[in-house]
From TrEMBL:
Keywords tagged on the record: Cell shape, Cell wall biogenesis/degradation, Glycosyltransferase, Hydrolase, Peptidoglycan synthesis, Signal, Transferase
Domain (L,D-TPase catalytic): residue spans on this chain: 68-204
Identification of the protein by name: L,D-transpeptidase
Molecular function in Gene Ontology: glycosyltransferase activity; peptidoglycan L,D-transpeptidase activity
Superkingdom, natural source: Bacteria
Position of the signal peptide: 1-16
Biological or metabolic pathway of the protein: Cell wall biogenesis; peptidoglycan biosynthesis
Taxonomic source organism: Oricola cellulosilytica
Keyword Cell wall biogenesis/degradation: yes
Gene Ontology biological process terms, A to Z: cell wall organization; peptidoglycan-protein cross-linking; regulation of cell shape
Pfam families, per the entry: YkuD
InterPro entries, alphabetized: LD-transpeptidase, LD_TPept_cat_dom, Transpep_catalytic_dom
Keyword Transferase: yes
Active site, UniProt feature: H164 (proton donor/acceptor), C180 (nucleophile)
Length: 204
């Protein structure tokens, strides 16, 4: 009888451990539903098509950086927002394609909701069809900057790089951009609300 009780207890404990392991990756699942935001009907993201590691989750994270710091791991395609207690909020990201990678230390200069996108001159030169947006592409569901943008500065100057949303949720986990770091729109909205101007950003 004692052996049976031990077996049941062990099974319950194992279930609890499994539940604990999956909680972090599923607790924000409802955050990817469609919603109204800034006058736009933000569509839902088919979460079943997004690899589990790229979904928003709280993870153990050892770092000497203070809470509020953003650490971008371009190899793993993760952005970590450092939290208290050895934890971090982790988001899946898309990064710069070959030849457009960027790394370094910067800070969040300013933030914008539903930003205007203005392609840089070098991009227009590569893609002349973008010349029509030289004066800026109006905000919207198809705007490449998505629902939010955090503008990165270094030594008091705009780096030209952004942490921003994207309507192309399927690109998360890939090397696809012209150097900026992109997140799913629902994730950049969450990050935007947690981060203040002046926050340190480390991209490696």
């Amino acid at each position: 009888m004692r052996g049976r009780v031990f077996f049941i207890a062990a099974a319950v404990a194992a279930m609890a451990i499994v539940s604990g392991c999956t909680t972090n990756s599923t607790q924000f699942a409802s955050a990817y539903k469609g919603r109204s935001d800034g006058g736009y009907a933000l569509p839902s993201i088919p979460l079943a098509k997004v690899e589990r590691q790229y979904r928003r989750q709280i993870v153990d994270y050892a770092t000497k950086e203070k809470p509020g710091t953003i650490i971008v791991d371009t190899d793993a395609k993760f952005l970590h927002l450092v939290l208290e207690g050895g934890k971090a909020m982790r988001y899946g990201i898309g990064v710069g394609r070959e030849g457009f990678e960027w790394s370094g230390v910067a800070k969040v200069g300013w933030k914008r909701e539903w930003p205007t996108w203005t392609p840089p001159a070098a991009m227009i030169k590569r893609q002349p069809e973008l010349a029509k947006y030289r004066g800026g592409m109006k905000p919207g569901l198809t705007n490449p900057l998505g629902a939010r943008a955090l503008y990165l500065m270094r030594n008091g100057r705009d780096t030209g790089y952004r942490l921003h949303g994207t309507p192309e949720w399927w690109s998360i986990g890939g090397a696809v951009s012209s150097g900026c770091i992109r997140l799913m729109n629902q994730d950049i909205i969450d990050l935007y609300e947690r981060v203040q101007p002046g926050a340190k950003v480390i991209v490696s």
